[in-house]
Design goal:
Structural class: alpha+beta
Strand content: 15-25%
Largest sheet: 7 strands, antiparallel
Radius of gyration: 30 Å
Shape: globular
Strand order of the largest sheet: 1-3-2-4-7-5-6
Length: about 300
Protein backbone atom coordinates (compact mmCIF):
# COMPACT_ATOMS: atom_id res chain seq x y z
CA UNK A 1 0.00 0.00 0.00
CA UNK A 2 1.30 3.45 -0.87
CA UNK A 3 1.70 5.42 2.34
CA UNK A 4 1.09 9.17 2.45
CA UNK A 5 4.55 9.45 3.99
CA UNK A 6 5.98 8.52 0.58
CA UNK A 7 4.38 11.62 -0.93
CA UNK A 8 5.61 13.69 2.02
CA UNK A 9 9.11 12.41 1.33
CA UNK A 10 8.91 13.44 -2.32
CA UNK A 11 8.01 16.97 -1.28
CA UNK A 12 10.80 16.93 1.31
CA UNK A 13 13.36 15.97 -1.31
CA UNK A 14 12.14 18.59 -3.78
CA UNK A 15 11.86 21.45 -1.27
CA UNK A 16 15.24 20.66 0.28
CA UNK A 17 16.82 20.80 -3.15
CA UNK A 18 15.22 24.15 -3.97
CA UNK A 19 16.13 25.55 -0.55
CA UNK A 20 19.64 24.11 -0.79
CA UNK A 21 19.50 22.20 2.49
CA UNK A 22 19.86 18.59 3.60
CA UNK A 23 16.67 16.56 3.21
CA UNK A 24 15.39 14.21 5.89
CA UNK A 25 15.66 10.50 5.15
CA UNK A 26 12.64 8.38 4.28
CA UNK A 27 12.77 6.64 7.67
CA UNK A 28 12.85 10.00 9.45
CA UNK A 29 9.90 11.27 7.43
CA UNK A 30 7.92 8.08 8.11
CA UNK A 31 8.50 8.36 11.86
CA UNK A 32 7.67 12.07 12.00
CA UNK A 33 4.61 11.71 9.78
CA UNK A 34 3.27 8.93 12.03
CA UNK A 35 3.69 11.11 15.13
CA UNK A 36 2.18 14.10 13.38
CA UNK A 37 -0.85 12.12 12.19
CA UNK A 38 -1.41 10.72 15.68
CA UNK A 39 -1.16 14.15 17.29
CA UNK A 40 -3.57 15.81 14.88
CA UNK A 41 -6.02 12.94 15.26
CA UNK A 42 -5.86 13.31 19.04
CA UNK A 43 -6.63 17.02 18.71
CA UNK A 44 -9.59 16.28 16.45
CA UNK A 45 -10.92 13.68 18.88
CA UNK A 46 -10.58 16.18 21.72
CA UNK A 47 -12.51 18.85 19.86
CA UNK A 48 -15.26 16.39 18.98
CA UNK A 49 -15.52 15.39 22.64
CA UNK A 50 -15.76 19.05 23.67
CA UNK A 51 -18.57 19.61 21.18
CA UNK A 52 -20.37 16.56 22.49
CA UNK A 53 -20.07 17.80 26.08
CA UNK A 54 -21.42 21.22 25.11
CA UNK A 55 -24.37 19.68 23.33
CA UNK A 56 -25.26 17.46 26.27
CA UNK A 57 -24.99 20.36 28.71
CA UNK A 58 -27.26 22.57 26.65
CA UNK A 59 -29.79 19.78 26.15
CA UNK A 60 -29.90 19.13 29.89
CA UNK A 61 -30.22 22.84 30.58
CA UNK A 62 -33.14 23.11 28.17
CA UNK A 63 -34.87 20.20 29.85
CA UNK A 64 -34.46 21.79 33.28
CA UNK A 65 -35.60 25.23 32.20
CA UNK A 66 -38.41 24.03 29.96
CA UNK A 67 -37.43 26.36 27.14
CA UNK A 68 -37.60 25.65 23.44
CA UNK A 69 -35.16 23.00 22.18
CA UNK A 70 -31.83 24.36 20.98
CA UNK A 71 -30.49 22.61 17.90
CA UNK A 72 -26.73 22.21 17.74
CA UNK A 73 -25.38 21.00 14.46
CA UNK A 74 -22.76 18.31 14.69
CA UNK A 75 -19.45 19.06 13.06
CA UNK A 76 -18.43 16.65 10.34
CA UNK A 77 -14.73 16.23 9.80
CA UNK A 78 -12.77 15.02 6.93
CA UNK A 79 -11.22 13.02 8.79
CA UNK A 80 5.07 -8.14 -8.97
CA UNK A 81 6.73 -7.36 -11.14
CA UNK A 82 7.47 -6.71 -14.82
CA UNK A 83 11.07 -5.82 -15.54
CA UNK A 84 11.55 -4.98 -19.22
CA UNK A 85 15.05 -5.43 -20.46
CA UNK A 86 15.16 -2.36 -22.64
CA UNK A 87 13.37 0.29 -20.62
CA UNK A 88 14.49 1.41 -17.19
CA UNK A 89 12.41 4.56 -16.88
CA UNK A 90 9.44 6.14 -18.62
CA UNK A 91 7.76 9.49 -18.73
CA UNK A 92 3.97 9.80 -18.34
CA UNK A 93 0.91 12.64 -18.74
CA UNK A 94 5.71 -25.93 21.10
CA UNK A 95 3.12 -27.55 23.27
CA UNK A 96 4.15 -27.45 26.96
CA UNK A 97 4.73 -30.74 28.85
CA UNK A 98 5.03 -31.37 32.58
CA UNK A 99 5.67 -34.14 35.14
CA UNK A 100 4.30 -34.70 38.63
CA UNK A 101 6.55 -33.95 41.64
CA UNK A 102 6.31 -35.02 45.31
CA UNK A 103 4.19 -32.74 47.44
CA UNK A 104 7.05 -32.39 49.92
CA UNK A 105 10.79 -32.23 49.39
CA UNK A 106 13.62 -32.02 51.89
CA UNK A 107 15.70 -28.84 52.24
CA UNK A 108 18.82 -30.74 51.20
CA UNK A 109 17.31 -32.24 48.07
CA UNK A 110 15.68 -28.93 47.24
CA UNK A 111 18.98 -27.08 47.45
CA UNK A 112 20.69 -29.79 45.38
CA UNK A 113 18.06 -29.44 42.73
CA UNK A 114 18.50 -25.67 42.66
CA UNK A 115 22.30 -25.97 42.47
CA UNK A 116 22.02 -28.47 39.63
CA UNK A 117 19.61 -26.28 37.74
CA UNK A 118 21.78 -23.22 38.29
CA UNK A 119 24.93 -24.95 37.03
CA UNK A 120 23.14 -26.37 34.01
CA UNK A 121 21.67 -23.00 33.18
CA UNK A 122 25.00 -21.23 33.64
CA UNK A 123 26.78 -23.74 31.46
CA UNK A 124 24.16 -23.41 28.78
CA UNK A 125 24.31 -19.63 28.93
CA UNK A 126 28.11 -19.64 28.78
CA UNK A 127 28.31 -21.80 25.67
CA UNK A 128 25.48 -19.94 23.94
CA UNK A 129 27.03 -16.54 24.64
CA UNK A 130 28.48 -15.04 21.53
CA UNK A 131 26.85 -17.63 19.28
CA UNK A 132 23.31 -16.25 19.26
CA UNK A 133 22.44 -15.04 15.80
CA UNK A 134 21.21 -11.49 15.61
CA UNK A 135 18.11 -10.95 13.46
CA UNK A 136 18.91 -9.48 10.10
CA UNK A 137 17.54 -5.99 9.47
CA UNK A 138 14.31 -6.02 7.48
CA UNK A 139 14.83 -5.76 3.76
CA UNK A 140 13.60 -2.54 2.28
CA UNK A 141 10.54 -2.89 0.10
CA UNK A 142 11.05 -2.62 -3.65
CA UNK A 143 8.49 -1.56 -6.23
CA UNK A 144 8.25 -0.25 -9.75
CA UNK A 145 7.04 3.30 -9.21
CA UNK A 146 6.20 6.66 -10.74
CA UNK A 147 6.29 10.12 -9.21
CA UNK A 148 3.93 12.70 -10.68
CA UNK A 149 3.89 16.45 -10.09
CA UNK A 150 0.80 18.54 -10.86
CA UNK A 151 -0.08 22.18 -10.44
CA UNK A 152 -3.51 22.93 -8.96
CA UNK A 153 -5.30 26.17 -9.75
CA UNK A 154 -7.71 28.11 -7.56
CA UNK A 155 -10.63 26.05 -8.89
CA UNK A 156 -8.94 22.76 -8.09
CA UNK A 157 -8.07 21.79 -11.64
CA UNK A 158 -4.85 19.87 -12.05
CA UNK A 159 -2.30 20.28 -14.82
CA UNK A 160 0.56 17.86 -15.35
CA UNK A 161 3.92 19.34 -14.39
CA UNK A 162 6.16 16.28 -14.63
CA UNK A 163 5.95 12.50 -14.42
CA UNK A 164 8.77 9.97 -14.63
CA UNK A 165 9.17 6.50 -13.20
CA UNK A 166 10.42 2.97 -13.76
CA UNK A 167 9.02 -0.50 -14.36
CA UNK A 168 12.02 -2.02 -12.58
CA UNK A 169 11.53 -2.76 -8.88
CA UNK A 170 13.70 -0.35 -6.90
CA UNK A 171 14.21 0.21 -3.15
CA UNK A 172 11.67 2.77 -2.00
CA UNK A 173 14.09 5.25 -0.44
CA UNK A 174 16.28 5.41 -3.54
CA UNK A 175 13.43 5.24 -6.03
CA UNK A 176 11.30 7.93 -4.42
CA UNK A 177 14.23 10.30 -4.08
CA UNK A 178 15.51 9.71 -7.59
CA UNK A 179 12.19 10.02 -9.41
CA UNK A 180 10.92 12.91 -7.30
CA UNK A 181 13.93 14.88 -8.51
CA UNK A 182 13.95 13.56 -12.08
CA UNK A 183 10.26 14.22 -12.68
CA UNK A 184 10.57 17.71 -11.20
CA UNK A 185 13.69 18.82 -13.05
CA UNK A 186 14.31 16.53 -16.03
CA UNK A 187 10.97 15.88 -17.72
CA UNK A 188 11.76 17.20 -21.19
CA UNK A 189 8.16 18.29 -21.73
CA UNK A 190 8.37 20.95 -19.04
CA UNK A 191 10.83 23.47 -17.61
CA UNK A 192 12.29 22.60 -14.19
CA UNK A 193 10.01 23.27 -11.21
CA UNK A 194 10.89 26.47 -9.36
CA UNK A 195 10.61 27.56 -5.74
CA UNK A 196 7.79 29.98 -6.53
CA UNK A 197 5.62 27.13 -7.84
CA UNK A 198 5.63 25.15 -4.59
CA UNK A 199 2.34 26.51 -3.18
CA UNK A 200 0.47 25.27 -6.26
CA UNK A 201 1.99 21.79 -6.38
CA UNK A 202 0.57 18.38 -5.59
CA UNK A 203 2.29 15.03 -5.97
CA UNK A 204 1.18 11.47 -6.65
CA UNK A 205 3.30 8.45 -5.80
CA UNK A 206 2.14 5.34 -7.65
CA UNK A 207 3.48 1.90 -6.72
CA UNK A 208 2.97 -0.57 -9.58
CA UNK A 209 2.02 -4.23 -9.13
CA UNK A 210 0.09 -7.20 -10.55
CA UNK A 211 1.45 -7.06 -14.11
CA UNK A 212 -0.59 -9.29 -16.46
CA UNK A 213 -0.27 -9.78 -20.25
CA UNK A 214 -3.58 -9.05 -21.98
CA UNK A 215 -5.03 -11.46 -24.53
CA UNK A 216 -6.31 -8.42 -26.41
CA UNK A 217 -5.61 -4.67 -26.36
CA UNK A 218 -8.90 -3.91 -24.61
CA UNK A 219 -8.68 -6.60 -21.91
CA UNK A 220 -8.37 -4.17 -19.01
CA UNK A 221 -10.67 -1.92 -16.98
CA UNK A 222 -10.75 1.86 -16.78
CA UNK A 223 -10.12 3.01 -13.21
CA UNK A 224 -8.48 -0.26 -12.19
CA UNK A 225 -5.61 -0.81 -14.57
CA UNK A 226 -2.77 1.06 -16.10
CA UNK A 227 -1.57 -0.23 -19.45
CA UNK A 228 1.74 -0.55 -21.21
CA UNK A 229 1.77 -1.16 -24.95
CA UNK A 230 4.34 -2.03 -27.58
CA UNK A 231 3.93 -2.36 -31.34
CA UNK A 232 5.69 -2.06 -34.68
CA UNK A 233 4.80 0.48 -37.35
CA UNK A 234 6.61 1.12 -40.62
CA UNK A 235 9.60 -0.86 -39.45
CA UNK A 236 9.95 0.96 -36.15
CA UNK A 237 9.21 -0.22 -32.63
CA UNK A 238 7.06 1.92 -30.33
CA UNK A 239 6.01 1.73 -26.69
CA UNK A 240 4.26 3.85 -24.06
CA UNK A 241 2.26 3.61 -20.84
CA UNK A 242 -0.60 5.30 -19.01
CA UNK A 243 -0.97 5.04 -15.24
CA UNK A 244 -4.34 3.80 -13.88
CA UNK A 245 -5.68 7.29 -13.15
CA UNK A 246 -5.12 8.79 -16.61
CA UNK A 247 -8.14 7.38 -18.44
CA UNK A 248 -10.42 8.27 -15.52
CA UNK A 249 -9.12 11.84 -15.34
CA UNK A 250 -9.61 12.32 -19.07
CA UNK A 251 -13.00 10.61 -19.23
CA UNK A 252 -11.81 8.20 -21.92
CA UNK A 253 -13.18 4.84 -22.93
CA UNK A 254 -10.78 1.91 -23.33
CA UNK A 255 -10.59 2.44 -27.08
CA UNK A 256 -10.02 6.17 -26.75
CA UNK A 257 -7.30 5.48 -24.21
CA UNK A 258 -5.61 3.01 -26.51
CA UNK A 259 -5.64 5.39 -29.47
CA UNK A 260 -4.27 8.23 -27.34
CA UNK A 261 -1.54 6.00 -25.95
CA UNK A 262 -0.52 4.89 -29.42
CA UNK A 263 -0.33 8.54 -30.45
CA UNK A 264 1.81 9.22 -27.41
CA UNK A 265 4.14 6.43 -28.46
CA UNK A 266 4.58 8.06 -31.85
CA UNK A 267 1.96 6.43 -34.09
CA UNK A 268 0.56 8.81 -36.70
CA UNK A 269 -2.05 6.68 -38.44
CA UNK A 270 -5.79 7.32 -38.65
CA UNK A 271 -7.75 6.67 -35.46
CA UNK A 272 -9.98 4.16 -37.23
CA UNK A 273 -6.93 2.12 -38.23
CA UNK A 274 -5.50 1.51 -34.78
CA UNK A 275 -6.59 -2.14 -34.76
CA UNK A 276 -4.68 -2.71 -37.99
CA UNK A 277 -1.33 -1.96 -36.37
CA UNK A 278 0.74 -5.11 -36.33
CA UNK A 279 2.12 -6.86 -33.29
CA UNK A 280 0.20 -4.70 -30.82
CA UNK A 281 0.86 -6.06 -27.35
CA UNK A 282 -0.65 -4.84 -24.09
CA UNK A 283 0.22 -5.48 -20.46
CA UNK A 284 -2.11 -4.31 -17.71
CA UNK A 285 -1.09 -3.50 -14.17
CA UNK A 286 -2.50 -1.97 -11.00
CA UNK A 287 -1.26 0.92 -8.93
CA UNK A 288 -1.51 2.05 -5.31
CA UNK A 289 -1.48 5.83 -5.09
CA UNK A 290 -0.56 8.30 -2.35
CA UNK A 291 -1.43 11.95 -2.94
CA UNK A 292 -0.40 15.13 -1.13
CA UNK A 293 -0.65 18.86 -1.75
CA UNK A 294 1.98 21.38 -0.73
CA UNK A 295 -0.07 23.07 2.05
CA UNK A 296 -0.34 19.68 3.76
CA UNK A 297 3.39 19.18 3.47
CA UNK A 298 4.01 22.70 4.77
CA UNK A 299 1.86 22.12 7.86
CA UNK A 300 3.73 18.92 8.61
CA UNK A 301 7.12 20.53 8.08
CA UNK A 302 6.25 23.45 10.38
CA UNK A 303 5.25 20.95 13.06
CA UNK A 304 8.42 18.93 12.52
CA UNK A 305 10.59 22.06 12.81
CA UNK A 306 8.93 22.88 16.13
CA UNK A 307 9.95 19.55 17.63
CA UNK A 308 12.92 19.63 20.06
CA UNK A 309 16.10 18.33 18.50
CA UNK A 310 16.66 14.64 19.03
CA UNK A 311 12.96 13.82 19.14
Amino acid sequence: MASTSYAVYCFEVLVASLEKRQALTLSQVEALWSRYSNSTQAEDDGEELDNYDVEMTEDEHEEDEGEDEVKIESIERDASSLQPSNISSLRISSPATGSSTPSTISTTSSQAALDSTSKSSSKSSFFSFGHKQQPAPPKEEEYPLFVTWNTVNSRGYKSLRGCIGTFNAVPLSDGLKSYAMTSAFEDSRFPPITLSELPTLSTNVTLLMNFTPCSGPLEWNVGTHGIRISFSYHGRHYGATYLPDVAVAQGWTREETMISLMRKAGWSGRSSDWKKVGDLKCIRYEGKVATLRYPQYKDWRTWADSMPKGQ
